[in-house]
């Protein structure tokens, strides 16, 4: 029989073993696992790209340009054997080549980066200015996946009721009553056939934007034909039409309907540099798949967007228009920024993956050679069929 004293001595020993040996082993294992996950994500991104190149049936190989740095390029000819070799070698050298590092703006610098639009037209000028950072902000929302699950199955509030409860004006417009907003933004959402997602997006994003004490409007631009979805063109249309709806100095936020920001400190206002709003997304294991990515959610000042002539109108179907947009910014020296991944993290609503457009690679390559002034805002042609001022958004029906 052990005495109580011996027993407690044994417990202490076990505890020491647990804390010093087992927990330490577990920590190392988890670190190893995370490293492995990162490699797998980078590898599968490359594999996808290579599969697409293969499917394009490049019997003659692929003519491309290799970036030697400082804007010097040399002509390269890649054949299928070489592509296969890259795929095999990639796991051994992925860390060096999958460069997704980025000089993120840390949380404490965010207030200095934001552009203030003081005194909007709708609140009285005698009201005090809202603080630079709203006191209503809260940190990362880790319950968001649960919230989405519940909203998916349960009936959402009726839009009219939701708008009345949150004091949202017709057309999805809102500003704080207690102070003058320092930021004024319009959120442009390109859209077709995703009503369930739109409902969830709206009921999530309105309270989010209100906690940030912004003056904002949500504009949904719906493509009303059966041609392939053209995200860039819809965003150009949204930009032009939204300028007719409000002040010419607003900040533009181009936003996909399936993305929900998780952290209130990701302020939906413009920064001095254009900003790619997501630095990490749950579907990419909270990483960025590649450094020049500019898709999903992007904020930009009116003059910067005009300077690059907006998006290209030529990317029919999924993929590439955001890469072209990223290149347009780069060639004008308008490098974009991102907030810290702890702040700029997002959840993507589940949906069936769109079929990527097969000719996006060719288009991207030819657009790089072309002067952007030949395709974009300046050449945009469209028909505005109708505008509806709905309780939660301004709805543009376009063709
Ligand atoms: C890229 C797409 C982007 C998309 C991101 C994230 C292309 C062009 C060929 C390189 N780009 O692969 O449009 O936003 O994935 O999903 O397909």
Shape: globular
The count of strands amounts to 13
- Unreliable runs: 55-78, 80-98
Number of helices: 10
Identify the CATH architecture of the largest domain: Alpha-Beta Complex
- By secondary-structure content and strand pairing, the structural class works out as alpha/beta
Q: Give the name of the CATH superfamily of the largest domain.
A: Spore Coat Polysaccharide Biosynthesis Protein SpsA, Chain A
Q: Overall mean pLDDT score?
A: 82
Helix content, binned percent:
25-40%
Summarize this structure as a short list of keywords or feature phrases.
single chain, 8-stranded mixed β-sheet, 3-stranded mixed β-sheet, 10 helices, Spore Coat Polysaccharide Biosynthesis Protein SpsA, Chain A, 13 strands, 2 domains
How is this structure best described in words?
It is a single-pass type II membrane protein. The chain has 399 residues and is an alpha/beta fold. It folds into two domains: 4-93; 101-398, Spore Coat Polysaccharide Biosynthesis Protein SpsA, Chain A. It contains ten helices and 13 strands. It has helices spanning 4-55, 80-97, 110-113, 144-153, 159-166, 195-211, 231-245, 302-307, 321-331, 360-369, and strands spanning 62-69, 72-78, 173-174, 184-191, 215-223, 251-255, 259-261, 275-276, 280-281, 297-301, 345-348, 384-389, 394-398. The strands form three sheets. Strands 3, 4, 5, 6, 8, 10, 12 and 13 form an eight-stranded mixed beta sheet that branches. A three-stranded mixed beta sheet has the order 7-11-9. Strand 12 (384-389) and strand 13 (394-398) form a beta hairpin. Helix 1 (4-55) runs antiparallel to helix 2 and helix 9 (321-331) runs parallel beside helix 10. It is globular, with a radius of gyration of 24 Å. The relative contact order is 0.13. Mean pLDDT is 82; it is low at 55-78 and 80-98. Bound molecules: 2-(butanoylamino)-2-deoxy-beta-D-glucopyranose. Residues 293, 295, 319-320, 322-323, 356, 360-361, 364 line the site of 2-(butanoylamino)-2-deoxy-beta-D-glucopyranose (BGN).
């Amino acid at each position: 029989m052990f005495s109580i004293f011996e027993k407690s001595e044994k417990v202490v020993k076990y505890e020491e073993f647990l804390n010093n040996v087992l927990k330490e082993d577990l920590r190392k294992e988890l670190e190893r696992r995370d490293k492995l996950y990162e490699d797998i994500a980078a590898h599968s991104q490359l594999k996808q790209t290579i599969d697409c190149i293969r499917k394009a049936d490049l019997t003659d190989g692929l003519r491309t340009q290799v970036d030697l740095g400082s804007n010097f390029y040399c002509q390269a000819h890649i054949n299928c054997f070489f592509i296969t070799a890259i795929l095999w070698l990639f796991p051994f050298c992925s860390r060096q080549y999958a460069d997704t590092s980025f000089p993120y703006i840390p949380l404490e610098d965010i207030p200095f980066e934001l552009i203030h639009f003081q005194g909007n037209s709708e609140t009285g000028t005698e009201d005090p200015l809202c603080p630079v950072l709203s006191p209503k902000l809260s940190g990362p929302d880790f319950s968001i996946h649960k919230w989405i699950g519940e909203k998916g199955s349960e009936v959402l509030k009726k839009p009219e009721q939701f708008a009345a409860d949150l004091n949202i004006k017709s057309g999805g417009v809102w500003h704080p009553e207690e102070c003058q907003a320092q930021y004024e933004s319009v959120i442009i959402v390109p859209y077709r056939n995703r009503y369930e997602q739109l409902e969830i997006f709206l009921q999530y994003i309105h309270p989010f934007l209100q906690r940030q004490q912004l003056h904002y409007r949500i504009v949904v631009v719906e493509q009303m034909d059966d041609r392939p979805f053209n995200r860039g063109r819809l965003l150009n249309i949204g930009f032009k039409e939204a300028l007719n709806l409000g002040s010419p100095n607003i900040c533009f936020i181009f936003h996909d309907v399936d993305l929900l920001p998780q952290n209130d400190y990701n302020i939906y206002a413009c920064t001095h540099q254009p900003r790619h709003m997501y630095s990490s997304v749950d579907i990419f294991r909270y990483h960025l798949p590649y450094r020049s990515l500019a898709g999903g959610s992007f904020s930009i000042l009116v003059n910067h967007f005009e300077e690059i002539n907006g998006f290209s109108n030529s990317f029919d179907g999924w993929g590439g228009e955001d890469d072209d947009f990223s290149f347009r910014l780069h060639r004008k020296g308008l490098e974009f920024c991102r907030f810290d991944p702890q702040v700029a993290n997002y959840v993507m609503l589940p949906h069936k993956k769109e079929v990527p457009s097969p000719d996006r690679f060719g288009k991207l390559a030819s657009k790089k050679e072309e002067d952007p002034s030949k395709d974009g805002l300046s050449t945009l042609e469209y028909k505005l069929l109708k505008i509806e001022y709905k309780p939660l958004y301004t709805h543009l029906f376009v063709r």
